[in-house]
Amino acid sequence: MTAFGRRLRLLITGIPFAWLLLFFLLPFVFVVKISLAEAQIAIPPYTALLARVDGHWQWQATLENYAFLLSDRLYLLAYLNSLKIAALSTLFCLLLAYPLAWAIARAPQPARNVYLLLVVLPSWTSFLIRVYAWMGILGSNGYLNRLLLSLGLVDSPLPLLRTDFAVYVGIVYTYLPFMVLPIYTSLVRLDYRLVEAARDLGAPAWRCFASIVLPLSRAGVLAGCLLVFIPATGEFVIPELLGGADTLMIGKVLWQEFFNNRDWPVASAVAILLLALLLLPMLLYYRQQAADSAPGRTVAGG
Amino acid sequence: MTARRSTPWSRMWLAIGFAFLYLPMLVLVLYSFNESRLVTVWAGFSTRWYAALWQDRQIIDAALLSLRIALLAASAATLLGTLAGIALARFGRFPGRGLFGAMITAPLVMPEVITGLSLLLLFVSLAQLVGWPEHRGALTIWIAHVTFCTAYVTVIVAGRLGELDPALEEAAQDLGATPLRAFLSVTLPILSPALLAGWLLAFTLSLDDLVIASFVTGPGASTLPIVVFSSVRLGVSPKINALATILIVAVTLAAVLALWLAGRQAARRRAGAMPAAM
Question: Taking the domains of chain B in order of start, what are their residue ranges?
């Protein structure tokens, strides 16, 4: 390779690399640092880790914020509840998305491309607007309650908005495309002759599904589940707009510590513990993506 | 390959899936033309909320700011993402590749509250240490958006590059083109639909971001999602329904346009046009 080629390569790699180091990785160093500080009423609202006390430098890092989070039941419950809500939403999403992805993958062209577009299209419209749409539907004076009342199915409006139920609906609704796409990608690659061969040999439909279709679409299911589960665990907008005051989710707790209590060190510690919790699923997603983009495999866009 | 066909069962699932995805937005669009201030009670057709929206300086200003940031962020992210995509798809192993790949993948799933908080703490600490950035506002939002949008563009570009037949570039080089020349005149034109798709995705992601912008913004820089969120927190409002309708219609038109462009290009490719002529 020529010297010019080498320099060009260095430039092509270096520019985005430097940007991400500075604006993606470096920030976490500061989150860790500030999570070890104490809150104080000042600008910025946290203490320095290294301070001059009585004429000599003193190390002032403290693990107090972490001890506080781990000893307070409220935070523990928020973490556990976030994991529960994210896991169940992921499951509901999967149950709805899998048959949908199958139906799209098995549809003839050009209908298949239109269906695919129809699945992606909502994820291009504002996330906030899609969550907001459910506020109008689920409210006590909302469209759903008015429909149920006018049909005589209920006597008084059901409490739907500001409940955990609304949070589940919101997550499944907004994250559904992220589940459908990877599953569709693995299903459309599947050689249907395998299923037909199994049917010819007398396997019942459920058997074909359990021992051929499901194993061959495992990668898509895994990718979809991680794409829903990880962001849903730290979700803020959905529990804030659709959940009740008692819907404890860690994203909401972090937001409140930061914006309402202005306790930056505790908010930082909340973020670090959330990151630690999500590290394993993130690693899994990274390995899955790396395997999927290995030579010879095609990647699903987005 | 056996013929693909629709069964009643799959038609039913398609109907359920698309009803679930589209009914809520359809209701929103319908009731944006409602005369009544009570959002959920129909009182006759009216476009008064669109007029009210047009009069709302705060929303118009926020929309203009959001559009400006989204245009600039999408363009910068497309540039960075294309470079990163080339590096990941074409340069094989290089020192730091694992870290580079991780920094591309992580933003795709990172909870927004973490990204937002970490970037704010970076900006505050940098301002203390080196005096930059002096103020938080449009610039810091732009930096944050470029950072997470770059990851999405990279995935699209690297994916498309991975599918390409390397023989095309090799042929150009056999005919005497330098690797750079071969890339610019053979690969880049084939890549251009992926670049457009990446740019559009980055644009919509930037336009849509509430959480990260809320963390890194400063006084006076309220983007559209920030303004909409503070209004929506208080409950449903007919004005927001009208705004939602405009957004939904704009996205639908853009998608139909993109589909039409892609279809035209595919038709041209079938007609035997050289990729370089596109």
Answer: 27-277
φ and ψ at residue A50, rounded to 5 degrees: -115, 115
The reply to whether A137 falls in a domain is: yes
ipTM (interface predicted TM): 0.91
Q: How far away is chain A from the Cα of B273, in angstroms, using its nearest Cα?
A: 22
- Decide if A54 is inside a domain: no
In this complex, do B14 and A104 lie within 8 Å of one another by their Cβ atoms? yes
Task: Report the gap between the CA of A225 and the closest CA in chain B (Å).
Answer: 11
Cis bond before residue A159 (omega within 30° of 0): no
In tens, the pLDDT along A206-260 reads 998 999 999 999 999 999 999 999 999 999 999 999 999 889 999 999 999 999 9
Total domains in the fold of chain A: 1
Which chain B residues have a beta carbon less than 8 Å from that of A130? 24-25
Which of A13, A27, A102 is the closest to B121 by Cβ?
A27
Could you tell me which of A270, A267, A172 has the C-alpha nearest to residue A225?
Answer: A172
State the first-to-last Cα distance of chain B, in angstroms, to the nearest integer: 32
Q: Does A141 reside within a domain?
A: yes
CATH number of residue A165's parent domain:
1.10.3720.10
Question: Would you state the CATH architecture of domain B27-277?
Answer: Orthogonal Bundle (1.10)
Query: Are A302 and B179 inside 8 Å of each other by CB?
Result: no
